[in-house]
Amino acid sequence: MTKILGISAYYHDSAACLLDEGRIIAALQEERFSRIKHDHSFPSRSITEIFRIAQCTVEDLDYVVFYEKPFIKLERILTTYLRHCPQGLPSYLKAMPIWMKEKVWTKEQITKQLKYDGEVLFADHHESHASSAYYPSPFPSAALLTIDSVGEWTTTALGHAQGNKIHLDKEIRFPHSLGLLYSTFTYYLGFRVNSAEYKVMGLAPYGNPIYSDQIEKHLIQFHEDGSFHLNEDYFDFETGLKMTSFRFEKLFGMPPRKPESPLLQKHKDLAASIQRVLEKAVLRICRHLHKHTRQKYLCMAGGVALNSVINGRILRETDFQDIWIQPAAGDAGGALGAALAIWHRFLGKPRLQPVQVPTNDQQLGSLLGTRYTDMQIRQYLDSVRARYQELESPTLMEKVAHALSQGAIVGWFQGAMEFGPRALGNRSILADPTKKNVREQINARIKFRESFRPFAPAILEEHMADYFDLTRRSPYMLIVAPVKSKKRSRIPAVTHVDGSARIQTVSQTSNPRFHQLLEEFNKQTGCPILLNTSFNVRGEPIVESPAQAYRCFMSTGLDFLVVQNFLLSKRDQPGATHV
Fold first, then answer.
1. Core-most of 150, 221, 437, 514, by most CB within 10 Å?
2. Contact indicator for 569, 563 with CB cutoff of 8 Å
3. pTM listed for this prediction
C-alpha cells in the first residue's frame, strides 16, 4: 500500500495531506492546531494528527512531496532584486535571512522534522494547484486554470487534462499577476494581504465600479488571447516593503487606508472597481481557454479561485458546461495536489473512479480532518464542569431547530473537520436566515467583525432551485448566484446587498447529519435554509477541538453549543456571562 505525504509550508496556509493507494485519507491545515491564522510554519502538528487518523508512522511512508520548488522560487526572487538593484535592497535584506535559514533547506527541514530518511520529491507550484483541482474532480477530462499571486515564476497557468495526464501548456509569469493586482487593492483598502482578499469581494457590492476604466487604462493591459500585462510603474510589490507605488496613490488621490479606520464610499467604489476588472480578466481567460481546448468542463485552483463571485459568472457566462473548484484552492490545497501529482504523474497510476457517495468526486465533501468520539467529548465537558444534555439524534435535531427558529444562535460541531477555508456544516455557527437582524447580531456579538461582511446560506439540495438562480449544486460554498427576487425578503440574513448569496447545497449523502438538521428546521418553519458561517471569531482560525468550541461558546454571544450528541445552553453554564 503506497503512502504519500504531501506538504505545503513557508509561505502561508501550511498544510499536510496523506494519500493511501491514491485515496485521500486526511488533509489538515496547521492553523487549526497552532491557532495562528494562515500559519506558514512547517505543519508538524498536522502531520502528527494525520498519522493518528491513518494509524501509521513515518516509517510507513513511501514518498514525501513538497508543493513547490524552492530553488526556482529563489531564482525568481534574486533575479527580481538584481533587475531592480539597488532600490530593492531593504526588501532583499529582510527576505534573505528567512531564505537562508529556512526556505532553501526545505528538504533538510522535512527530513529533520519528520525523522525521515526516505525520498523527498518536489512538485511545481502550479502543477500542485492543477492536480488538486483535476484529480479529485468528477470529470474524465477538463480544461485547467490556476490563478494566484505567484508560484515559482508562474502566476497563471492554462492547460487541459485527460485520464491521469495533465498538460499545462500556457502560462503568465511574474510580475504580471491577477492575484497580486487584487492583493494590491486589498492592501490599499486597509486589509491584510494573503488573508483578507475576501473582504474586498464582500465590500464590492456596496460600491460602484467607477474606477474600473482607470484601472484598465493605467494598471493592466489586456491582450486578444486572454493574457495581460501589469504596468510595473504603479506597483512596489517586486522589491519594496509595500504593495503600491507613489504613482498608484497619486492615481487614486489618497494614501492607503489605515486598518480599522472608517470605510469611505471611495473605498467601496475601489473595491467594486477592482472586482469588476478581475471578473473581466478571468472571464476573458476562460473564454480563450474554452476556445483553445474545446473541453466541456473546467477545473480551477489557486487563491483567485476562491473568488466565488467570479466562479458564478464563469458558470453563467462561458461555454463550459460545469466547473469544479478545489475547496482548499489556496496554498493549503497545494499539499493535496503535490501528493496527487506524484501518484498519477511520477508513479503513472490511473485515476480512481469518482466516489458516488458523498459528492461524486474524490474530495469526500472536504471533510478530511480530525474527529472526536462521544467519550472524548464527554470527558472534556466533565473536566470543565460544563452542564449538558446528551440526546439521541431525533430529539437533538428537534430541540436545535426549535431554538434556531426562536432566534437563537448556535455553535455546531460534528464529525470530521473541513479542509479549506469554508465551514461546511461540521465546524459552523448557525442561525435562522429569515430574521433580518441576525446578521448584525452575529457580526457584533459573536464574530466581532466588519458589518459589511455577508453570510452564506446552507440549503437542502432538493430545494436549491426554489431559492436561487443556480443550475448545479454547490457543496463547497464556492459559487455566488442571484437569490430569486421573490425570495429575497424571505431570507434577508443571507441575501447580500446586491441580491446574491454564496451558496452551499447540502445533500443527504454529502453530510447526512447536517441535512437532517436542515430537514427538521424546514419541517418546523417552512424554510429549508440555515445561515452558516465559520465557527470562529475574527482573527482566529476555525475551531478544531471540543475545547476550542467550548471556549468560543463561553466567550461570545452564542446561545447554544452542539458538540456531536451533546447540547449545551449558555444560561446553564457555570460562570456564564452574556456577551
1. 514
2. no
3. 0.95
